[in-house]
Specification:
Shape: globular
CATH superfamily of the largest domain: D-Amino Acid Oxidase, subunit A, domain 2
Number of strands: 22
CATH topology of the largest domain: D-Amino Acid Oxidase, Chain A, domain 2
Largest sheet: 8 strands, mixed
Number of helices: 13
CATH architecture of the largest domain: 2-Layer Sandwich
Radius of gyration: 23 Å
Low-confidence stretches: none
Distance between the termini: 44 Å
Structural class: alpha+beta
Strand content: 15-25%
Length: 486
Amino acid sequence: MKSDVLIVGGGLMGTIIARELSRYRLRITLVEKTADIAFGGATKANTGIIHAGYDDQPGTLKARFCVQGNRLWPALARDLGVPFQRTGSLVVAFNEEEAHTLRSLQARGETNGVPSLEIIEHRPKLRSMEPHLSNTAVAALHAPTAAITSPYEVAVALAENARQNGVRILLNTEVKKIILKEGSVRGVHTHNGLLEADVLINAAGVSADVISALAGVDTFSITPVKGEYFVFDKRLRAVVQHVLFPVPTPMSKGIVVTHTTSGNLLIGPNAHSVDDKTDLATTTPGLDEVFEGALKLVPQLSTKRSLIITHFAGLRAESSVGDFTVESYDEPHGFINVAGIKSPGLTAAPSIAEQVIHLVQEQGLELTPKATFDPNHRPIPRPVDDIAHTRLTRLLADDSRYGHMVCRCEHVSEGEIVEAIRRGATTLDGIKFRTRAGMGRCQGGFCTPHLLHILARELDIPVEDVTKRGGASKIAPYQAKSLLRG
């Protein structure tokens, strides 16, 4: 089937563009080279911050889309049924030079249109806002409009809502060649065959420069920048109330101390350029750097290292142009780049998607609103959230598997896991991103064997063929096959 619009990339940008375009009477296809939504670069591994907008240079796309996007997030989160917490943020200064930088950030933010910025120099007030903040802090820039969300949950919800509104999503489908004829896009060749389209949107993250070059547009390059993180047990949730930043550097917003929407304490990331666009390995020096950076903000963490439950790394798409690239071209006609979307890309995403709609229209496609468009995404029911409500009784009456807890740490039932599989999860990470099974204190030590059996049963495959995240990432070692079958 020929598409009006084909989107390359199943991360946050690709999925939000697909969802916003599904408001119109268009034939839309999204292709993703990995086994599931949000399995690629930054979406699956970032800090989850909705930035206020004081950090970006006025006049840049980053500044414009960040502030606009921040305003759009509450309604988007409500429609999607995804976590969103307006925590506010503090940029912390430890000397007079850094305090002067806070004043520059405040002025920049006010120029960008960020509301209610305030510099707090009264140390007792700082301590009341953040009791565990370092005693050496002298001031902080308070941005009350900052917030947090869960990026991979958002991307999955966007994809499900897009599919609900008619978008075709093709996983394990990598673009190998772009078909151009007489200066216009005609489609793409993938290793699964030809896909025809009139408009091609490149939202391929760290690979966006590769896709752009296939279209003959080589005006930028992408350098992967690795960021490493630690996740702590939920017992440390109350250590911080806001998103805590150090004073930023030209390379990075710095190592952050925050909490996640699920209640874990999160620290990171550092920032180091790497050559390999698939390099997601953590390193001992990198993790040491993250921990030391966090201690500067919250020294109490020095005694809490035993409460770390996992660490991970993500890749940011650092563009050679130093800003977002959101543009179309006279030639090739029908090609749109959405590239270099690093921080504040999560914040900016709703506003970028609106701009892409205008660019699609400029490419000659008629955008007729679709009367059947439904903006609301229905999350998977969570019995643990409904334990005091009568709807839990109705849920258990309809499907008793919602009463069987499989993941003890995160209180995830078999009913939730089966529903996640019904919605498209085919791997352990796919279930994790949709339900949080395996994300808790034991990191899947208890529930993984159960998840393997449920996946094998529901997908009708041998248990040893179940993978962590597709491809060759099989979980079951050969010597454990007989045990897993049991």
